[in-house]
């Protein structure tokens, strides 16, 4: 019998993350639906189907990340796919350089850069147990970054560095960034030109 691959999607309750989770489930994966709000994760998991599981996961909280990794080890023993989808575009108002405080920048970097590194590091051993592990970080492509303002864009540019480092270090596993296109979600006040359904 074919063993179902296990995928963890961070922030999979809405927008691009929910669509990625649905698509992975349609392709036969067991999907671990991450959200900082467990009830939201449970609702999303129900909407995805019988092979989805809700996980409380705040990518800026080390205890939450460690608890998720421990639960994945206990219940599945490995992780085949990690999708680093959780992200924020600003920590107050949509950022223009002179208006954004350093605290706002730090807060966005905490989620979009250090959150990705923290979750990836915590899952590396589990990914190492999978026969062909994949790490994907959701990231706008360079031409798109102008659309994301001067708080989000620098954080996503900074995210390229650890993504590349993981790609070099784990060449066999495969670590990549994927751009969904300018997609209509809460992140951009639904101004994106694509729908999450088509984007993922
Ligand atoms: N929309 C676009 O055009 C576009 C283009 C390129 C890349 N992206 C990237 O795609 C990803 C998904 O964004 P989206 O457009 O689908 O926006 P979205 O609907 O606003 O989703 C963002 C998700 O990130 C979650 N999140 C924020 N901080 C978190 C944390 N500390 N821990 C766990 N989850 C956290 C939010 O959780 P809550 O529900 O709890 O608030 C929300 O579910 C982001 O990384 C974004 O940068 C988007």
UniProtKB/TrEMBL annotation:
Q: SUPFAM superfamilies of this UniProt entry?
A: NAD(P)-binding Rossmann-fold domains
The similarity comment for this entry is: Belongs to the short-chain dehydrogenases/reductases (SDR) family.
- UniProt keyword NAD present: no
| Native organism | Mesorhizobium ventifaucium
Its name, as the record gives it, is SDR family NAD(P)-dependent oxidoreductase
Q: Which domain of life is it from?
A: Bacteria
Write out the entry's keywords from A to Z: NADP, Oxidoreductase
């Amino acid at each position: 019998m074919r063993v179902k691959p296990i995928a963890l999607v961070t922030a999979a309750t809405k927008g691009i993350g929910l669509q990625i989770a649905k698509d992975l489930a349609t392709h036969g994966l067991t999907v671990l639906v991450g959200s900082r709000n467990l009830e939201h994760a449970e609702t999303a998991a129900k909407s995805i189907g019988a092979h989805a599981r809700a996980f409380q996961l705040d990518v800026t909280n080390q205890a939450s990340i460690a608890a998720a990794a421990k639960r994945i080890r206990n219940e599945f023993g490995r992780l085949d796919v990690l999708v680093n989808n959780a992200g924020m575009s600003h920590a107050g108002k949509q950022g223009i350089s002179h208006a954004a405080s350093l605290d706002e920048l730090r807060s966005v970097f905490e989620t979009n850069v250090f959150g990705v590194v923290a979750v990836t590091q915590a899952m590396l051993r589990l990914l190492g147990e999978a026969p062909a592990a994949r790490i994907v970080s959701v990231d706008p492509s360079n031409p798109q970054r102008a659309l994301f303002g001067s708080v989000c864009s620098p954080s996503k540019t900074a995210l390229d560095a650890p993504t590349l480092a993981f790609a070099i270090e784990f060449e066999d596993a495969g670590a990549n960034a994927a751009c969904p296109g300018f997609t209509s979600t809460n992140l951009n006040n639904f101004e994106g030109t694509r729908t999450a359904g088509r984007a993922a």
